[in-house]
Design goal:
This protein has 20 helices and no strands. By secondary structure, it is mainly α. It folds into two domains: about 180 residues, Up-down Bundle (Growth Hormone, Chain: A); about 210 residues, Growth Hormone, Chain: A (Up-down Bundle). Helix 9 runs antiparallel to helix 10, helix 12 runs antiparallel to helix 13 and helix 16 runs antiparallel to helix 17. The longest helix is centred in the N-terminal third of the chain and has 37 residues. About 55% of the residues are buried. The model has no long low-confidence stretch (mean pLDDT about 90). The structure holds beta-D-glucopyranose (BGC). The site of beta-D-glucopyranose (BGC) has 12 residues, from helix 5, helix 12, helix 16 and helix 17.
Length: about 450
């Protein structure tokens, strides 16, 4: 098989993890109406059903943090895919709310594991000039999973037992991930950390030209040798020399999540209902899903060409302008002509999604897969991923609460998100460094 075909096959399999991430986080939006009706959810049960996935996902990184470096990138994803299978079945056949919450917790756990390990696995298998694009496959898959969940919701929305059908739909990619993960190779870099040098070279030869394979092999071995002498351990992540990558893992996800992305991804239908009928609002949400996926494809073209920092600046400025526009549409609700208000709200949200999808979306997962030293990469990227779920949960819980207050009515929430994004400009300028075109080993040398 042609080397590129193998690489893209690996990317497609690994990215199925991203699809499940997007599907299982997005589906709750569209499943809620039928869940409310059939299970007679109280408001607190409702927030538990919504939050269970994010809460479960917070624990995934703890499991993967220690096991990814021990068991390898492949085995941990096989385990995660089995958890996805069990979680999907449990959620789909749940006889009552508690079993549903248990199923959603398991799904979250699996999402937390793949989110921490798949980008890392992709980064380690990619040639350096394609790494941005390859890891962004993961983000593309997340957006396709979100879109799929909206479309499934639209199709089954009126069916009897609609929510069960929607959860069953998540079972299919879980099986695909399981089978696919059995077929893909282990990360050569991880194999080298375990002294399985021959296997590592064999995998590299499948993916690179012979010269590139030997060069990468030697470079990684040399780096590992140096690391051995330095006796590094995961505690090193908290040492002064790794302060910048530590801050990157916290900062990029704080800004990504507090830019309010999931206020839109999880609640856009509710927002659109203030303008449209119920079915139009659902369609507008499907539109959000489509724009999100298309813009992600666009972003993939630029990450390795323009570099990470220019895209981050573009995205931050663009999202800030859009958030301000949406905020103003709420603030001047009564004085603006209806048509203009509609344009500011819908146009603002759609354009926001475009700017997010070319920058903050892919960059979060990309940066945490590439900025850490090999020896602690599994642990460190898992910790980055934990930050993501923690901030995500905070936004998911606070948005509906804030909406009910004056902050919701006068657009204050969106102005808060805008301020976070503007502060992100300082982070982009002073903390993030350019990784375009550098090998993972070159990046690592920066800290020594
Ligand atoms: C974020 C998710 C978000 C998605 C939207 C991802 O990078 O991690 O929280 O829902 O982008 O496309």
């Amino acid at each position: 098989m042609n080397k590129n075909t193998i690489i893209y096959f690996i990317a497609a399999v690994a990215a199925t993890g991203g699809l499940l991430f997007g599907f299982d986080t997005g589906v709750i939006n569209v499943a809620l109406p039928s869940l409310r009706e059939q299970l007679q959810l109280t408001p607190s049960q409702e927030s538990m059903v919504v939050g269970a996935v994010l809460f479960g996902a917070m624990f995934g990184p703890f499991i993967s943090g220690f096991l990814t470096d021990k068991l390898g990138r492949k085995k941990i994803n096989i385990i995660a895919s089995l958890v996805f299978v069990v979680g999907s079945i449990l959620a789909a056949i749940a006889p009552d709310t508690n079993s549903l919450i248990a199923g959603r917790l398991l799904l979250g756990l699996a999402i937390g594991i793949v989110a921490a390990t798949v980008p890392l696995y992709l980064a380690e298998l990619s040639p350096k000039d394609k790494r941005g694009r390859m890891v962004t496959f993961f983000q593309l898959a997340i957006t396709l999973g979100i879109l799929l969940s909206y479309v499934v919701g639209y199709i089954f929305g009126e069916a009897e037992n609609a929510w069960r059908m929607m959860f069953w739909a998540g079972f299919v990619p879980a099986i695909i991930l399981f089978v696919g993960m059995l077929l893909v190779p282990e990360s050569p870099r991880w194999l080298l950390t375990k002294g399985r040098n021959e296997e590592a070279l064999k995998v590299l030869n499948q993916l690179r030209t012979p010269d590139e394979a030997v060069a990468e092999y030697n470079e990684t071995l040399k780096l590992l040798e140096e690391e051995k002498q330095n006796k590094s351990s995961w505690m090193e992540l908290f040492m002064p020399k790794l302060r910048i990558p530590l801050f990157i893992g916290i900062g990029i996800f704080a800004i990504q999540q507090f830019s309010g992305i999931n206020a839109i991804i999880y609640y856009s239908t509710d927002i659109f209902k203030s303008l449209f009928s119920d079915s139009q609002a659902t369609l507008a949400t499907v539109g959000v899903g489509i724009v999100n996926s298309l813009a992600t494809i666009l972003g993939m073209q630029f990450l390795d060409k323009w570099g990470r920092k220019p895209l981050l600046f573009t995205g931050l400025i663009g999202t800030a302008v859009c958030l301000g526009t949406v905020g103003l549409a709420f603030l001047f609700e009564s004085s603006l002509p209806a048509g203009l208000r509609q344009m500011m709200l819908v146009g603002g949200i759609y354009t926001y999604i475009i700017f997010f999808a070319i920058s903050l979306g892919p960059l979060g997962w990309l940066l945490i897969s590439e900025v850490y030293p090999l020896k602690i990469r599994g642990f460190a990227s898992s910790m980055g991923s934990f930050n993501h779920w923690f901030f995500d949960l905070m936004v998911a819980i606070s948005f509906p609460l804030m909406r009910a207050t004056s902050l919701g009515k006068n657009g204050g929430i969106f102005f808060i998100y805008m301020i976070v994004v503007l502060l992100g400009l300082f982070f982009a300028k002073f903390v993030v460094f350019e990784t375009k075109g550098l090998s993972l080993e070159d990046i690592e040398k920066k800290y020594n």
